[in-house]
Write a structure and sequence with these properties.
Length: about 525
Amino acid sequence: MIVAMALAATEPSATQLARELEEFLAGNPAAALLEEGRLLFDMRSARYSLSTEQGRCLLHLWSEERNLVRRVSGLQLRKDSLRLETRRFGQTKPQVLELVSDRDTRPPSTRDATRTRYIRVLERVLQRSFHGWTPGRFHTAADLEHSFGPAYARGVMTRGPSAWSVIAVNAQEAPTIIDGILTLGILWLAYCRERGQGRQLYEGLRIVVPPGTAITTCARSAWLNDAAKWEVYELDERAEQLKQLDVRDSGNVRAQLVHAFNPNAALERFQPGIDRLLGLLVPGLREAAEIRPQSASEVGFALHGLEFARIRHRLAPGSFARCDEITFGAGANETPLITETEDLFQEMTTRLFENRQASGSRRNPLYRIQPERWMESLLRADIEEIEPMLCRDIVYSQVPAFAAGDRGMMDLLTVTRTGRLAVLELKADDNLHLPLQALDYWSRVRQLQKENAFQKHGYFPGVQLSNEPPLLYLVAPALRIHPSTDVILRHFSPEVRWELIGLNEDWRKRRKVILRKRSPHST
C-alpha cells in the first residue's frame, strides 16, 4: 500500500503534463508531430488545445487535413524531441507520438547520401547543358564562417577568364530551404568574386532548384540589380533535364488583398464577449491587454503581441444559427472558454501576465514566444519612434497578401506624411533571410499599388496615396542583424528604396535607434 502510494505520488499530474507540452510547443514553433516517423501535423500551420478536466490531460490537434484527440499519460523529453505516451478513447493500449523540433527527421547519413547523389547528377547535367563551360568540383561542406550550410550544392563553371557561380538544391530538402536559396546564392557569388581577386570575371549566378519550386526565387531575382546576371533553372533529377526559366516574367507575381473592415463595428458587435473576458482578467492584465479586431467576424486579445484569447462569430454546431465562440490559449494553443474552463483560463492568463513583461525571465517560454509580435505591438503604438516621417494614425499590422498560392503576412504597413506607402519587416533575432523576406512583401505591395488595390479594398481612407514605389524598412536589434545583410541589400534594384534600422538590445523596455543605413538611391 505504501509502495503504491509512493508510485502514484511520482506520476505527473494532468496539469504538469499540459504545462510541459505547452512549454515545448512554445519553445519550438516549427515543431512537427510524428507517428512511427509519419508526419501528422506541422505545428506551423496546425492548431491545438489542452484540457485538464477530470484529472486527465487531453490533447486536441487539428488542421485542414485531419483532426486528432488523445489523452496524454506520459512524456519523455529527448534531445530535440518530446515523446508522448497517449491513449485513444475507449482503449487501454498506449500509442506513442513524437514531437520533434524539426520536421526533417532523416538520419544524417541519409541526408548526406542524398546530397552526394544529387551532386553527381548536377555535374553531369551541367556538363551536357553548357557546352564549352567546365563545371568545377561541387560540394556541400558547411562553412559557418560564411553562412553556408550543407543543404546547398555550391560550385563554379569556367570558360577561359569567364566564370559563373552556381548554387543548387535537391528536391528532398524542406520548402523553406529551397525558398532560401537566393540568399545563399548571393553570398556564394560574393564569396567567389572575393576569392577570385580579379583572376576570373564572374558574370553572375546560376540557381538550380527542383521542378515546380522556383516561384519565390524568380520573383525575388526580378528585383535584383545589374551588378550580376541572374539565371534560374529547374532540374528534373530523374530525367536529368535542365530547364531555364524567364526571371523577367516572374517579377510581378499576382497578389491579392483581403478587404479592409470597420474595426469599431466589430468591437461593438462583440461587446458582450469582450465584457465577459475582461471580467475574468487579473488586475493589471485588464489594463495592459490589447483588444484588436482581426476581421469583421473575429476579435483577438493580446499581451505584448501574443494573442491569448479570441472571439469568433460562426455557425453554432448542428444549426444554422450563429453564435459567438470564445477560445483561449497562447500561440497555436486554443481551448474553448466555458464555465468548466474558466479556472484554467484565469490560471493561464495569470502566468502570462507574470512572465510576459519587459522585466520577465528570458528563459520563460511566455517571454520568448513570438518576439516579432512583441516588437510589432510596440512600434505600432508609436511608429514615429523609429521614423518621424511615418504616420502613427494609420498603421496596419499582419495584413494578409496572397501571392502564387502563398499567404503572406506583412508585419506593418503604413504611409509617410506625403502619402508614400511604407512596408516594415521586423525581426527580433538574427535572421539571414531578413532582406529577401522583406523584399517579398515590398514586391507584393508594389504590385497591389499599381492595381490601386488599396483604395479598392478600403485601406488608407481619406489618404491620397503617392505613386512613388513603397519605402522598405528592415527593423531589428542592431546586435542581431546578420553580418551578411549588407551584402544582400547591395544587390537590390534601385527601385527598392530601403532603410535598415537597428534598435537597442533592451527594446522591450525602451526603444532607441542606434544604427541607420539607407540604400544609395534613397531620396
